[in-house]
Write a structure and sequence with these properties.
This protein is an alpha+beta fold and 226 residues long. It folds into two domains: 2-132, no CATH class; 140-219, Alpha-Beta Plaits (2-Layer Sandwich). The chain contains seven helices and six strands; from the N terminus they run H-H-H-E-E-H-H-E-H-E-E-H-E. The strands form two sheets. A four-stranded antiparallel β-sheet has the order 4-5-3-6, with helices on one face. A two-stranded antiparallel ribbon has the order 1-2. A hairpin with a 3-residue loop joins strand 4 and strand 5 (183-190). Helix 1 runs parallel beside helix 5. Pfam families: MgtC (PF02308).
């Protein structure tokens, strides 16, 4: 049991150093508790298998891990801590079953994942964010020109806005001009986005099928304004 306390403490030190929700004490208790449960199977005279006890530990630790996970708006916190709790329980069960070396190796691997992989994950996020920013800087505004009947102005405006919302696009200008023969022309300037070009082409396809639309086309010329 002392070895399970040591293994759980190694994992908990890294968690507490980063000021996570579960620190040294929590990891030690999880590891020790799992070891006690699995050790029970070897203490009784019946043919109870350690794997049966381990299966119950896996189920029980899910409730503890679930209490760590918090939702803050659209973000979820505590997933890594909950996963670490789950892995710590696994370390305790392995040590409790008598596999000391394997248990400590697993504890070291958990520490490695929480430190080194965390660094690589942050680097990847920085690279991805830089790539998205560079892509947006290269893109220019797109222009959508829709011609329809004056009596259908409200329906046309609504349909265009719905299509933009569908593809998560934003516009910076939305102008309506009167034309001859009771026609109007909607001119929409769409802000740059990573998927803007393909999305606008799909919007043109959808609008061309609309009965209120007489003509629709797409411009993507840099620096063009109204």
């Amino acid at each position: 049991m002392g070895l399970s306390v040591l293994a759980g403490g190694l994992i908990g030190v890294e968690r507490q150093w980063r000021k996570k929700l579960a620190g040294v004490r929590t990891m030690v208790l999880v590891s020790l508790g799992a070891t006690i449960f699995v050790s029970l199977s070897s203490m009784v005279a019946s043919d109870t298998s350690p794997t049966r006890i381990a299966a119950q530990v896996v189920s029980g630790i899910g409730f503890l891990a679930g209490g760590i996970i918090l939702r803050d708006g659209f973000s979820v916190k505590g997933l890594n801590t909950a996963a670490t709790l789950w892995c710590t329980a696994a370390v305790g069960t392995v040590i409790g079953a008598g596999y000391i070396q394997e248990g400590f190796f697993a504890a070291l691997m958990i520490m490695l994942v929480n430190s080194v992989i965390r660094f690589l994950s942050q680097r990847f996020d920085q690279f991805a964010e830089g790539y998205r920013t560079e892509s947006l800087e290269k893109n220019t505004n797109s222009f959508l020109i829709i011609t329809g009947k004056r009596s259908s102005e409200v329906a046309l405006r609504t349909e265009v806005i719905n299509q933009l919302d569908r593809y998560v696009l934003s516009f910076c200008h939305f102008v309506c001009q009167d034309l001859a023969e009771n026609r109007i022309q909607l001119q929409v300037e769409i802000e740059p986005a990573a998927n803007a070009d393909l999305a606008v082409k799909e919007i043109v396809t959808q609008l061309s099928k609309n009965n209120h639309v007489l003509e629709v086309f797409h411009l993507a010329e840099e620096g063009e304004t109204w």
